[in-house]
Amino acid sequence: MRIQEASTQLIASVEENARARAEEDLQSANREQAAFLESFFENMSRNTLVAATSVQNILEDDQLENSSYWDAETRLIRLASGSWDNANTETASVFIPSDVILTSSLVRKLNLLKHSELVFPSMLKGSPDIVAIYFGGQNKETFYYPNIDLANIVPPDFDVTGRQWYVAANPDNNLQNSVVWSAPYQDAALNGLVITTSAPVIDSSGNFQGVTAMDVQITRIIDFVANSQVGENGYAFLIDSNNRMISLPEQGFIDFAITDENAKLSAIMDPAVLTSASPELLEIMDAIKSKDNGIFSIILNGSERHVAFYKVQQVQYKLIYIIPSEELFSGRAAIADQISRKPEPRSTSACC
Hints:
The chain folds into 2 domains: 2-40 and 220-336, PAS domain (Beta-Lactamase, 2-Layer Sandwich), CATH 3.30.450.20; 44-217, 2-Layer Sandwich (Beta-Lactamase). The protein is built from 11 helices and 15 strands. α1 runs antiparallel to α11. It is α+β, with helices and mostly antiparallel strands. Helix content is 37%, strand content 22%. It has helices spanning 2-59, 72-75, 104-113, 120-126, 164-169, 219-226, 250-255, 261-265, 279-288, 325-328, 330-340; strands at 77-78, 84-85, 93-96, 130-137, 142-145, 180-181, 185-186, 193-202, 208-217, 235-239, 245-246, 268-269, 293-300, 303-312, 317-324. The longest helix has 58 residues, at 2-59.
């Protein structure tokens, strides 16, 4: 009986340790992959600051004051709609809305800003995830690289200062003058899922000059998450800062009972409006909304699953792992069986 009690206690202890180790390994893998995502967004944040600093330096460069590189008075064309446009053959698009007067101070600023197209191309070439770099100024002027004939895309009264990426980065709403991120969205130019990052441009006198922004394609991030190996039958997906799901694999649709065909075709899904989704999906979202990381179990599609999550601080996303608990703890049963197995009787031999 004492041997049996000791064996039972040992099995319980080993199972508890094996369980803790399995959960720790899952969280560790989750944390490491979240760190990769963090490094991607940190790099884009640095690029945004470099672009903003470049614009600031250009606006304050006295040597560029008398440059003959480009002259707004002769190179801008007033369209029939009243807005101002530049030639499509130039490196970057320039747009001025119809209600803006080209004063001498604005012309000076435009002439300086045009030098930014000498910097931005190398940034795009060095980072293929960047789709576009642009600047919006307080006078509603917009510079956009690459040249997409912006004046024939936006309405003649287009006000860049009202765009969300501009408003969010404006020091009035961004007291730390830090880099800000938009929610992911489908790019109208067919670049897939895109996120915009922006930062204010403030001169050495403390004057706000405008906002520099970048559109960043996150297809590579989505592919990385979709191809994450979580055991044999587990999977991973992202949720953005608005708790919308990104890159949910087929098993996720089955687990959460999502049958809406339109939802399956969408790159982003909001659980709050998925009428066919199981209540367990909202239960998971509720369990992780106020924490940066953690692990817990839940019954999904009739079986126990373990859920691990870790926050990507730069963009406030969360990387979520889901794996069958049976698979996660598959080694426990074998260990318990080995401990509880009765020892084989020793063989005896005749003494000579």
